[in-house]
Structure prediction request, 630 residues.
Amino acid sequence: MGNKDRAKDKGRVSSRRDFLALAGNVGVCACGLAAAGLGARLAVPELHDGPPHKFPVGPAADFVSGTLTWIRDREIFIVHDGDGFGAFSSRCTHLGCTVKRSTEGFYCPCHGASYDGRGRVMTGPARKDLPWYLTWVGSGGRVWVDTDRVVECGRKSANKERVTARDDEES
Amino acid sequence: MKGFFSALWDNLSGLPGNLRRGLRPGVADSGNSAASRLRRSFVYHIHPLRVTRRALRASTTLGLGVVSLTAFLILGVTGVLLMIYYQPGTQQAYASMQDIQYAVALGPFVRALHRWAAYAMLVSILLHLLRVASMGAYRGRELNWLVGLGLGGLALGLAFTGYLLPWDQRSYWAVRVSASMLDSVPLFGLALKNLMLGGQTVGQAALLRFYMLHVAMLPAGMLALIAIHLWRIRRDGGLAKEAGEGEDNELVPAWPHLVLRETLLMLWVLVALSAIAALVSAPLGAPVDVHIPANPEKAPWYFLWAQELVSYSARLGAFVIPALLVLGLVGLPFLDREDKGVGRWFGTPACRLAVLLSGLGAIGALLAFEVLYMQAGPGVFFKALGTLWPDIVNPGSGMIVVAFIAAISSGIATGSTRAAFLSGLVVMLVMLLGFTLIGVCRGPDWVFYWPWEGWPGVS
Prediction:
């Protein structure tokens, strides 16, 4: 094919050479993308560190009735009153800062969200209430929390309530 | 035997001349013309042989690209020096920063220079982007505009990853909050968060990843894009300008006219940043408490606008507005293809007027929002509107609406796509600057305090 013919063909993917060039380029790009994908796959962690989601927070006798205790390492509050033990998150549902206690309930220092005493949103950029978690008193007399099991706001474990064998992993 | 020794003797006695000829190839035979100076030097060969008089004038570009390149080079050198002492471990990082700050000779100076150069790079890249946009200089330079946006993104990434490395109170909480912001990003948010942190929480894996990104991946990407960026300037025929003749388009040799100006500017940037670094050191924050944030816990100034926006709505500030900004900037050279007014600050006189009015409108709108906000007290948008509506009606979405109105009305009034998009861009930038200033005024519990008001004691 002469130069004139090639010039005429310009703009059309008609010749075998053009097709092979295109296929080559597409192939190289595909290989590059695949390699990038493999590299990214390596960076996705297979093992997750961090504390377990089901844990004891201390002997039930240590919690004074009518008080709120902040468990620092777990970033949860434990409420204890006549109804039993309850647990809810101290992590602001907006962007995860630790809320602090205020006169009305809780207040987030990072972006100004506020919650009432039971962790329900009052004002601010937070949209969700602080989640409550399943609690129970194990056979060894310790209070347990499972942060994978969210329960309705205000739910507490009854003091006398003995837990099922599945939950009681204390002994 | 004899041949070997005499040849060796000749080589040794001819060493001075051979060294000169060998290390500076082409000196002897290409004369001393301006062109040969540019051709035979690796550093100078990125220049064209001749440039227009217009390109030499300071008012044409303000030399902002050279300033950001200089800052990048300073960051590379000071960064490598800091790597000698810095240790990327949650137990060691803060202590190694204290070593640099208090025990290493010149440590505080090098660290301060690293920080001030980082600030200079961010500011000069932003102004460079504004300069190019305002002159419509992306016309016919679509690829280089996109490469430039990539460089801006990498610079922000470098600032963000570098922020975590001291592992102090500020840096830990900034990254913990930013990681939560990814929850608001649909589809890729969670995968991105997992990839960024290497786990569920901001811990050792996250610190090591940030370190890798900061010292290897992002600088390498930046170097590659800088090479393409500079090469494209020549390929695209130098600075963008309106077609036509004039004294300004007269060509002069790049050596010495352009090279001299660039070198002087680089030296001045180095001198200015060194002086600032010698006078104002980079403070190290309080040791980290991974469970209790400080009050207030503020983002670095270049992300304060985002913190202010997410304090209205996480979804809007963390995803919608950044996504709109990126989309708008990427699409700019394809949505505006006007040749009129290219190479002039804010284009034609009509375009200039439209942009000015839009900027003033943005200031007015910002003041109106803030007066409303202050009058009603913090939380007005949440109290009045329930829990879903604040995501849709807030100062952040107000900004989008004002930018949209400014763009449409400028476009209709002038008939120019450039006037429209520049008006929208200027409204966004003016209001983001405003949100940054409001962020500066935020005190404990994210309450607004004027600069002259004291903050109440924090419990």
About this structure: The longest strand of chain A covers residues 142-151. Residues 16-43 of chain A form the longest helix (28 residues). The CA atoms of residues 99 and 109 of chain A lie 7 Å apart. Chain A has two domains: 1-44, 54-168.
